Each structure stands twice: as structure tokens, then as C-alpha cells.
Amino acid sequence: MIRQTFSALVLSLSLALAAPAVAAPASPVPASKVPPIVYKQRTLPNGLVVLTSLDRTTPNVTVQLWYGVGSKDDPQGRSGFAHLFEHLMFKATKDLPAESFDRLTEDVGGLNNASTYDDFTNYYEVVPANHLQRLLWAEAERMGTLVVDDANFKSERSVVEEELRQRVLASPYGRLFTLYVPQATYQTHPYHRPGIGSIEELDAATIDDVRAFHQAYYRPDNAALIVVGNFDEAQLDGWIDQYLGSLKNPAQPIKRVTAVEPPRRGPGVYEGYGPNVPLPAVAITWLGPKASDPDAPALKVLDAILSAGKSSRLYDSLVYEKQVAAEIYSNADLPAQPGAFMVGAVMASGHSIAEGEAALLAEVKRLRDAPPTAAELDEAKNELVAGKLRERETIDGRGFALGYALRINGDPAKANTELADLQAVTAADVQRVAKKYLDPQRRMTIRYRPESERPKGEAPATPPAPPKTVATYAGPVFALAPEGQRQAPPPIGPPVAPVLPKPAERTLPNGLRVIVARSSDLPLVTADLTLKTGGWADPPGLSGAAGMTADMLTEGTRTRSAREVARQVEALGATLESGANLEASSVTLNVMPDKLDTGMAIMADVTRNPAFAADELERQRAQALDGLRVSYQEPGQVAGFAAAPVVFAGTPFGHVSTGTPASIARIKPADLAALHKAWFRPDNAILVLTGDITAEQGFALAEKTFGGWAKPPTPLPAPPTITPAAKPRAIAIDLPGTGQAAVTLVKPGIARSDPDYYPGIVANTLLGGGYSSRLNLEIRVKRGLSYGASSGLSVNRSTGSFRAAAQTKNESAPQVLDLIAEQMTSLATAPASADELTARKSNLVGNYGRRLATTGGLADILGNLALYGVPLDEITRYTGKVEAVSPAQVQAFAARVMDPAKASVIVAGDAKTFAPTLKAKRPDLEVIPADQLDLDSSSLRVAGK
Length: 945
What we know:
Layout: E1 2-3, H1 6-13, E2 40-43, E3 49-54, E4 60-67, H2 81-88, H3 100-104, E5 111-116, E6 121-128, H4 132-144, H5 150-169, H6 174-185, H7 199-204, H8 207-217, E7 223-229, H9 233-243, E8 268-274, E9 281-287, H10 296-307, H11 313-321, E10 325-333, E11 340-347, H12 353-369, H13 374-391, H14 395-409, H15 414-423, H16 427-437, E12 444-450, E13 504-507, E14 513-518, E15 525-531, H17 545-551, H18 562-571, E16 575-580, E17 585-591, H19 596-608, H20 614-631, H21 635-647, H22 661-666, H23 669-679, E18 685-691, H24 695-706, E19 730-734, E20 741-748, H25 757-768, H26 774-781, E21 789-794, E22 801-808, H27 813-829, H28 834-852, H29 855-867, H30 874-883, H31 887-897, E23 904-909, H32 915-921, E24 926-929
Helix pairs in contact: 1-6, 2-5, 4-9, 10-13, 10-16, 11-12, 12-16, 17-23, 25-28, 25-31, 26-27, 27-31, 28-30
């Protein structure tokens, strides 16, 4: 389940990397460019709000329930309760056994999830449209007859605690964003409590507390039903009235938060510490207005000017120019009640919190002293409007926009009018709200350092003991009815056939393969260029060189500086990204059709003419090294890095393709230029264009922008054939003090061309693909040992890899390792049942269909088919090939590829808690302290250590 609050939103925004430029701005995008969400609204006699939006172009439908209860409504002494209840809502009802929502969604090709914000909790499903009636019935079941018993309560509490360990305690900056920022920002309002809770308060909760919480908030007059997709309107209204209209409200009124945060009387400082903090960080917050305040649009534009994209003020000053910060962020957190505004930075190596604080305040002062330029204002608006457009590519995205507007602004119509509100913001408005809210004398500064820097003798504050009881409950208690007495779900309706895109292709005279697929009337186009070269081409000793080559494409060309590239792209409201993986490199543009010509010209320039300037490489190198310092403190990342040197030692895959501290330090501009010259050529590339574009438009634009790209006279070398021969190993990487252990089993896999590709992806989905996979059911659902367990089958042109993994509390690592191995063995020793196989195939097919529904997803699928030499009409054969896989094929594949005895074991965590037990099971266990880890060596150990 997803948790999004002030802190989580900041964390998701903290990776905004930017750099201003000097090019002429694009004109602002009119709000009319974003089609409005057409919807109908009604309210049932019991108070349930109903919003419906019809879309005949999709075979799917999303059903969403938005409850007016969030983390701010947690009882005193029970922080994390709304989030805990989000999990409990997926357990049993009177007529549905636990995990039935997964049977009704994942098992028919759909999905389900939920999220807890400060002000609301939402539950959402996407299913084939013929399952709509069943989902409405099921939502009524869990609103009216949820089973809250001791077993389900304790099981989900354990899962939430593992989520807390993973997101907060094992993440280097989890404490800062999840705990310290809200605690320091608010003194009175319950927005100050961590939405994910605390282990102490969760452990103190009683079954009465939970049942009372459900009765108080999960009721029709505190809920909104949103349905978007393909349905019969009259039939839908009848089902809603039948299943949800009959639900009753409890007699007591809904409890509402009435606390008012007092104004700040002066600046304050909060000192925070964490055990695994590689770089210090600082955040500065101010109190702000609520979302419905007339000042909200101007604050959102101000936020975009400060940190959105590669041309923001904070990045330009702190990261690009002064190079004092590794990351910057800002956030206008404007919830249903008065919220906050924040700026912050994770400092670059060798730079202090004081430097960061001074630089941040200087940029805030600039906006207070003078309005932004017209170009900055237009760019910010374009980025905000284009972001809203991308949100509306999917039916669930449109549903979310309506629900968020209702719960945060009090009116779903705000989803359509907010764009005009943003466009109406003036430069004077931005300066005015900066002066009004961002007063330096009303700031709270949160400083975050390693625990080792805590003053001697100072102990961490001990929170007060939570109360033993916060509620008593005397209402109805439901239990799962005996099997013969349960109401059966409604029938499944006739299926709605999907309309699949029809790609067209052409090869230009220079060898560039061009693929175009019109897939949407929404004004968006994705252009994705794939180069058939990735990390395998790294020269010896230069791990990460191919990745750095791709990353540097957008950091300046022969005619455009890095700032100009960023400024010109973001002025269009576009995104332009470049990167590489082990097999391929890519450049991807997402833009509105009327700005496609301009965007493609920039895309072609960065692809063909990168400058690889020495000063830009130094900036990228410094950022990459700081990023690795953070990653090396995250157990999941460390275990992932170690996999390639262990599994593929001695081959071109046998290194960390993203690079290591030592290898990145050695990379020179000439190395990047040599890789680019050798591999960035039209006859080694595939260009895919998808979205609101015709085939002829796409081919003409490809010829215009890439037709002059000359093919070198030398023949293109063949990619290497990878034949791994390394023996399996057992490794423990010791990260003292980290909050969790990452447990991984990894081994060689298969090529995309393997005849057993489809049995392989079905087998992997059975084992670890999705919530209802065997690993997740065994480790998370049954035992509460992890927030999630999964597996992945990565295919390549010659040899791929297989990986099964989970994160758990350190002391449970040996148990989780055993459970993963047991499930891998089980899949190979007994055939899957027909029902399980049918369900997991539906999950695969449904996920594939949803990827096809977005311009980016479709471009990615077509690009991969071309990369691996698969005919493009495979998109029409995918479902049939998945459905044809037999139980025997799955079992045989598992025996051949998923044998745990042939897999390497990598566990990264606080080794003192698990290594002795693991050593007893695996006498060959190698324990490598983090400070002795050398990912450039196949031994993984610093020489002589």
C-alpha cells in the first residue's frame, strides 16, 4: 500500500535536478490544451457522493472509494492508525475471505491498491469493464461488513511495521522526511504526527481501537465513489443504488479535526540525527495556506520556479553553480487545512548544512525582493499544465484527479478549473505570496546529520508511552460467514474487447528504424530512441562509462549549453531524459503535439552532437559519487549492486553497470566521446513515436530530424555473447545500524529469444510477480515478515538474470531466505493448479494491456520488441501465447532456471543480527564489512582485506 503525505511528497520531489538557460521561452500552454474531465455527480440519500466519467475507448474501468479520513484523524497515542486501517480494508468481510480483493482484481487482469494521505484514504481498482458489478458489490461489503479480528489485525500490524522499517529506518533520509520535517513544522495541528506511525504506538493498539476507528469514519456520508471507464450509465446507477445505497450511517456524527496551528512568533531550529546518513541535509519550512485558498495557485507556481525540472532556481544556484548540494527540493504542501511550504537540500560531499541553509534562504530572498521573469513564469506554468495532462492518460489518473479535488478542495470541479487558476497567476502574485508566507523570521530549520555527530552526552528524546486504551467499542462485530452461507459475488458480464494499436514502420536510408503507433487522442506524444548498446560496452576498469555517456547527452551539445538544453525543453512543458541499462541506451521525449517539432530538434541535437564538456562531466561525476554514497547505505541497493559481479564474473555483464566510486572517478571526456562515436549511429538505433501522431507525420518528422544522421562506413560490431560460468556464492554485506536486511537469491536467466520465454514469464509471475504471488503470500500475507516479496526475470539478447528478493527486519533474514528457497523449489516439484495458473496469466495480460494504454508504455514495449528482434505484431499475439502456457511448461522452466541450489545468496544488513544463524545454514558464507566492499572486484572485497 502507498503512503503519501507532506514528507513522502517531498521525498518524491527531492530528485528534481535542474539548470536555467538563456534561450527564448516557449509561449504558455493554454489551459484549454488539456481536455476537461467530463463527469456526472450525484449524492445518494445516505450521503455517499458519486462521481462517474464515461470512456468508451478503454476495455477497463476504475472503481475508487475516497474516504474523508487520513493521518490527521489518527487517535491521540495511535499515530499510523489510518494507514494501518488502509491495510485492514483488504482483509475479510462477512462474505469475502481475506485477500479476496486480489482474487477479484489481480486474478482477472486488474490491479488494486490504496493510499493514505493526511486528509483522506483512497482505495482504487482497475479491472476489465465486465467485472464492474462485482467490484461495486465488494466495495459495499468492506464498507458495511468488514471483519476486524485479532488475527488480521496482528498480521497487518506486522506488515506495517516492516514497511516503516523499510521506508523510514533503512532509508538514509527516511527519518528526515517522514518523522522530523512534520514534527518540526507543526506544533499543534495533527499534521505533525508521522502518518506511517511508530512501532510503539502500533504495538499499543487494541482490537477495540481499530473497530471504533472503522465505525467512526468508514461510512457512506464520509465516502465518495468514483467510477471512470467503459460502462452503461443506467446500469451503473442501478448497481450503485442496489449495493451502496442501502448502507446505513452510524448515529454518532463524524469526528473532525478542529485544531488550529498557531502563527509562528520567530525562527526555530530542529536538530535531527540518523544512523546511516552519508551526506548532511537541511530543510526549511514555513506555515502556508490550505488548498482552497486563493493564494494556492501562486504558491504552486512559486514551487515550480524554485525546483521543477532542470532549469529551476535552486538547482542552478546550489547544484549547478555553487555545487554545494547533491539534491534540492521544494514543496507547496497545501492540504485540506492550512499546510506548509518547504525548501531543502542534501548537501554535496565536503559542504556544510550552514552553506546549504544560507544558499536556500538567498534564493527565497530573491523571490521576495523581485518578481520572476516572464520566461520563468511561462515555463513553470507549462510544466504544471503538462504534468496534469500526463496524469490524465489513464482512467485511474482521471479518477484520482477528481477524488483529490473533492477531498482537498471540497469540489471535484476544481480538477478542471485549477489549470485556468494556474494560468492566471502573475509574476506579481508569485512575489506577493513569497513575501506573505516565506518570512525568514517565521522559518523552521531542520538540520539532519549522522548519529555520530550528536553531541556527547545527548541522548535521543524518548517519546511518551502510548496509552493502553484510546477507545472502547460496543458496536456490531462481523465474522466471515461459513462457506455455504456466504452471499455469492454478482456474475461477470460479457467481455469488452480491447482496441490494440497498429504500429507502422520504415527504415530510413541511413539505417534508422522508425516505428510509429497512433495510440491516443489526448494531446501527448512520446518519442523514444533506443541505441542497442548499454553497460556491456563499458571498457575494462570503467564501469558506468556507457551510463555516463547516456546521462551526459542532455548536459550540453556543440551549440547548446546544458542550461540551454534544460531551459528550452522545460519551456515547452516537455520532458527529455537519457540513460542506459545493461543492454541499451535511450533518449526519451514526452511533449504536446504542437511543440513536437521543436522538441524533436533538441532531442536529435543531444543524441547526435553531445559536447562531453570537462566541466559538465565533473558536475555529473560529483553528483554520481554523492548518489552512490547514499545508495551504499540502503540495503536493497547494495544487494542489487553486488549481483552482477557475483553472477556474471568474467563476462561483459560482470560489473556494476551504473558504476562504482573508483570507476566513475577514472572516466574522462575522451572515454565518453569514444563510446559515443563507436555506438551512437543510426544503424544501431530504433526510433519509436506513439500517442497523438499519425504514421506519415511520424515518418516525416523522423526524416526531418534524424535523416541527416550519417551512418559510419565501418560495419557495426556484433554485441557480445554472455556465457556465465561463476559458481554460486553466499555473501553477507554488513551495514551496521541499518533498519532492515535485504535478502536476495540471484542466478543467470534466459535470453529473450529462448523458446521458453512465455513459460518463463508465467513461472516468474506465479513465484513473485504481484501481490498474490507465492513469495508475497508466504512472506508478507501469511507471516508479516516483509512489506513485500517479489521476483524478476530480466531477459537480454544473450543471457538474462533471475532474482528473488525481500526486505525484512535483520533478525528474520535467515527465515526469509529459507522461505524464498522453499517457494522456488516448490514451483519446480509440483504443477500449479489450473485456478492459480489462470489467475496469474490474467495478471500478466492485464498489466501488459495497461502498459499499452499510455504513450510511454507503448513506446517502451515496441522499442523492446525491436531491440530483441521480435516482430511488432507480437502485441497482438501476447495474450494468446501467455494463455497457451501449460502447468508442465511452468514446472519444467522452474526446474531449469529457478533452482535455488544454483543461485547465489546476497544479504545486506546489520550482519551481527543474522550472520551467525546464516553461517550455520551456509558454511560458505562470506561476511564483507561495508567499508571493505569493492564492487570493482569479482571477490567484492578490497584487496588485502
